[in-house]
């Protein structure tokens, strides 16, 4: 006779699989985002809202995916900026 696996009491049926929520967060950053202009068109805010209820594991994983994609993109931008800046300095001399 098969024994049933004990379910983790700290997880609900909505918590797994978390990889899906993580990927949706990454895709939310890469995809179409809502951009709002603030204060006479001087600053722009990118607003993307999680489709999950706050204070759930799904929301946290979505946020983690979004943040991960954001910081990967930030590193890429910094690298490109530094490379462009160094080319300008060396090209002038």
Structure, explained:
The chain has 93 residues and is mainly alpha-helical. The chain has one domain (19-92). It contains two helices and two strands. It has helices spanning 18-30, 57-92; strands at residues 34-38, 43-47. Strands 1-2 form a two-stranded antiparallel ribbon. β1 and β2 form a beta hairpin. α1 (18-30) packs parallel to α2 (57-92). The mean pLDDT is 77.
Question: What's this model, at a glance?
Answer:
The chain is mainly alpha-helical.
Strands, helices and their partners?
Elements lengths: L17 H13 L3 E5 L4 E5 L9 H36 L1
Antiparallel strand pairs: 1-2
For the structure shown, list the relevant keywords.
single chain; two-stranded antiparallel ribbon; elongated; 93 residues; 2 helices; mainly alpha; 53% helix
Please give the radius of gyration in angstroms.
Answer: 21 Å
Give the strand order of the largest sheet, numbering strands 1, 2, ... along the chain: 1-2
Taken from the alpha-carbon principal axes, the silhouette is elongated
Helix-strand makeup class: mainly alpha
Following the backbone from N to C, one meets helices and strands in this order, namely HEEH
Q: How many strand elements?
A: 2
Rounded mean pLDDT is 77
User: Level of helix content?
Assistant: 40-55%
In the residues, how many domains can be counted?
1
Query: Could you give the distance between the termini?
Result: 81 Å
How many helical elements?
2
Q: Regions with pLDDT < 50 over 5+ consecutive residues?
A: none
Q: What summary fits the major beta sheet?
A: 2 strands, antiparallel
**How much of the sequence is in beta strands?**
5-15%
């Amino acid at each position: 006779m098969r024994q049933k696996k004990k379910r983790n009491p700290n997880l609900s049926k909505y918590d797994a699989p978390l990889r899906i929520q993580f990927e949706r967060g990454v895709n939310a950053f890469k995809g179409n985002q809502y951009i709002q202009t603030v204060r006479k068109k001087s600053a722009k805010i990118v607003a993307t809202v999680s489709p999950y209820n706050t204070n759930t594991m799904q929301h946290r994983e979505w946020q983690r995916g979004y943040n991960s994609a954001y910081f990967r993109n930030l590193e890429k931008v910094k690298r490109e900026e530094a490379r462009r800046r160094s080319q300008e300095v060396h090209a002038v001399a």
